[in-house]
Amino acid sequence: MGSPQDFERGTEVSEAQIAVHWKEEEFVHPPAKFIGQANLANPDVVERFNEEHFPECYREYADMLTWNQYWHTTLDAGNPPFWKWFVGGKLNACYNCVDRNLAKYKNKAALIFVPEPEDEAVYALTYQELFVRVNEVAAVLRDFCGLKTGDRVTVHMPMIPELPITMLACARLGIIHSVVFGGFSGEAAGLRAADSGSRVMIYADGYYRNGKVVDHKPGADNAVEVAGQEGQKIDKILVWRRHQGQNLSTKPMVKGRDYFIDDVLKDFKGCRVDPVAMDAEAPLFLMYTSGTTGKPKGCQHRTGGYLAYVTGTAKYYQDIHPEDVYWCMADIGWITGHSYIVYGPLALAGTSVLYEGVPTYPDAGRPWRIAEQLDVNIFHTSPTAIRMLRKAGPDEPKKYKYHFKHMTTVGEPIEPEAWRWYYDVVGKREAVIVDTWWQTENGGFLCSTKPALNPMKPGSAGPPVLGIFPMIYDEQGNEVPAGSGRAGNICIRNPWPGIMQTVWKDNNRFVSQYYQKYCKDRNSKDWRDWPYFAADGAVLAADGYYRILGRVDDVINVAGHRLGTKELESACLTLTDVAEAAVVPVVDEIKGRVPEVYVSLKAGVSDGERVGRQVVSTLETIIGKIARPKAVHIVPDLPKTRSGKIMRRVLAAISNTMDTGDVTTLANPDVVEQIRQQIQGKGPVITKEGPEDVKRFGENE
Ligand code: PRX
Prior knowledge:
By secondary structure, this protein is an alpha/beta fold. It has 21 helices and 30 strands. The strands form 8 sheets. It has an 8-stranded mixed sheet with strand order 12-11-8-6-7-14-15-23, sandwiched between helices. Strand 1 (73-76) and strand 2 form a beta hairpin. The radius of gyration is 25 Å and the shape is globular.
């Protein structure tokens, strides 16, 4: 059960508390044409995956893979919450995504790369070409870098085909890759490299974004420096060149440390590297994500369970067939890209499109031109991109002759209005939509409609996916029943193969973050006593559909990207003039949520405007441009309880023009009105109420 600290945290601001509610929508049924060809069209599957058949139901997913050695135990739950999946099994993830597809599909496109500059040619890599390139890179990692099974490599790269090639080369040798989103700063990459203990980092010289060349390589120098401060020496930086033989970076290469991979590769032409048969439980990769503390955590994903889960869900929920052209517009630097651009689609011998740039470059017709040119029939994106494209070009999709059979939305709640534009205009009323709810920690989908079997409900993720048994708990650990209209914390009662193994080097954090809150008995060896706490608020309708409201912890989901408020606050506090800082989520029309920063200055500092600018640049340097706040407010003091705790909830209410509630018990109640006037002007307080059918999160206690 929650500790007093948890309850205290529960009274703080969270995304779920400022969630914008909408009314229950009518069902929309999947088109008959889709159903006719769907991978998952027989309703018997529901019976096969019911709770009685847990955990053996997951054999169905693992059997989609090729194993070097078959497993003997599907789930070993003997040491909760450290689950083991497909115990005794051995397999190689790269072999499953590349080699095994050669027999039937060697001439088929595995990846299609679409450069951002529209005059640069699109090119496809067949499975045979992918095989050749992955082998050569694996040889470089092994023989040039001296890396071996179990070592970690930090990959800080943009969306170019060399990114999945590098990941697969690591997987071939059982090297654990840790991909850091290309838009994060070098400092952020260095911190993650240090935590993972990487001595090799992989970079790109530059890339194109919004019509400009981004010089990416300078980040490597910052990364090496930050990693060094953390006690981790980086021996080698391998640099991919966006254009062979040219250098997009202005930064000089450091002799003896930095190497252009295309130069090194000349010595490895035609090399073949046998895939290493890995234990099903061997880690495949780390993915760092933000949590409730200042330090990002390395979600450690296993080889067998993860690959089985993403393959099974990509087949059944993304409906990927080898002949489809599948385009997920996410970045591979996030979990969506790992699971549903690289591992899931390739394990199914799919064709996966990689787009380098921003969706609206050079105009809002770009995605639809790409779809038309490549004949994409499965499309996958986020509500932020949908809102952005709708705003910039509401009628653009009509101009292009593409036809989607299937579309995904992921990463944030989607409001029914945006959903309808996606369905009517982007999908031309021909495509089924899945709204998939899940998290970095989860490996793959947790809630979604089964595309051919369940009707869609705009704004709701839908029922749990096969083999997942959720429950909504209130703060006291009581079940919040379906149809009550009350929000609570969504938890998953059972383990599943895609769940992370642990937090890298931090088992305690894994337990405390995800399992402590609702664990029924810490000594219990029964998985039923260990529900997974997802840190999302949700409402369960009477029909069994879940609507996700957003995070209940100190995480802000900005345009589908996770940022920790504590991480942002610690970055602000590195400035000597800043006395205190608080970061709160603010509702944004396009990005869903964005951070706003409140800062008080140290005594004697008067130049607030300068500090405000410094706060912005510091956040960009320490974290990356995605952390740029909507506003920085320099305020005389931050509202605090008598025990000195900063009341972010009050600040969030001001930023979101909601009611601040009773503030009379604060240590400094006057400052609240002062800040309100500063932010909102002197007019009356505007309160934003949701419709009656759903109570605000936290009102149910
Ligand atoms: O709040 C939920 C939101 O995104 C968070 C997870 O973010 P991340 O780990 O970066 O993974 C994003 C892609 C899987 C969740 O805690 N979220 C994700 N999908 C949805 C969603 N919120 C509402 N609806 C979704 N479909």
